[in-house]
Amino acid sequence: MKMYRPNFYESTCLRCNEIVYQVDRVGPLKDFTFFHSGCFKCCHCGTKLTLKTYYNNQHKHDDKEVYCSSHVQRRALVI
């Protein structure tokens, strides 16, 4: 029985934690994270995102999730 080992061109999807192959991969994003194209959606509302429409949490740099423009946590403006 042959054991399956991922190679250099395969990564793990941040959202579902399954292997994502190069043909279905979005990324790398910040901190070298990857998503399946179907998993690349706002973690709050599920809106499908693109590399031009996604945002990262600006308050917590360890938060690697992706958000739409309506649900991203932005820094408060100081007046």
TrEMBL record:
One Pfam family it belongs to: LIM
Record-annotated LIM zinc-binding domain positions: 11-78
Localization, UniProt: Cytoplasm
GO cellular-component term (any): cytoplasm
Annotated GO MF terms: metal ion binding
Keyword Cytoplasm part of the UniProt annotation: yes
Keywords of the record: Cytoplasm, LIM domain, Metal-binding, Zinc
Entries under SMART domains matching the protein: LIM
Family recorded in the similarity comment: Belongs to the transglutaminase-like superfamily.
Protein name per Swiss-Prot or TrEMBL: LIM zinc-binding domain-containing protein
Organism ancestry: Eukaryota, Metazoa, Ecdysozoa, Arthropoda, Hexapoda
